[in-house]
Amino acid sequence: MMLTRSFFELEFAFQDGIIDVYKIYDGGHNRITTYMTEIDISEIKALQVWGDVQKIKELTFCYA
Fold first, then answer.
1. Cα(56)–Cα(50) distance, integer angstroms
2. Residue ranges making up the domain that contains 20
3. Does residue 44 belong to any structural domain of this protein?
4. Among 1-5, 30-34, 57-61, whose mean pLDDT is lowest?
5. pLDDT tens profile 33-52
6. Is residue 14 part of a domain?
């Protein structure tokens, strides 16, 4: 039996031209995918979300 949740949390880690995406769990996190950026990260102006997403509660980016 597979249980599905309607709430989940993703973390985007930006470092050296790479974006790592992690799914956050109660006990930790699991890397989902890694993207190599084609442009400088500071040039990113938009984010697109695809799939069966009905509502985004919060979206936070921190660039340090």
1. 12
2. 9-39
3. no
4. 1-5
5. 998 888 887 777 777 888 88
6. yes
| Cα(29)–Cα(50) distance, integer angstroms | 22
Query: 32: Cβ–Cβ under 8 A, 6 or more apart, which residues?
Result: 10, 21, 22, 23
What mean pLDDT do residues 2-7 have?
A: 59
Residue given tokens 């699991």 in the structure block: 30
Residues 33, 17 contacting (CB under 8 angstroms)? no
Q: Is residue 22 part of a domain?
A: yes
**48 assigned to some structural domain:** no
How many structural domains does the chain have? 1
What is the pTM (predicted TM-score) of this model? 0.59
| Alpha carbon distance 64, 54 (integer Å) | 30
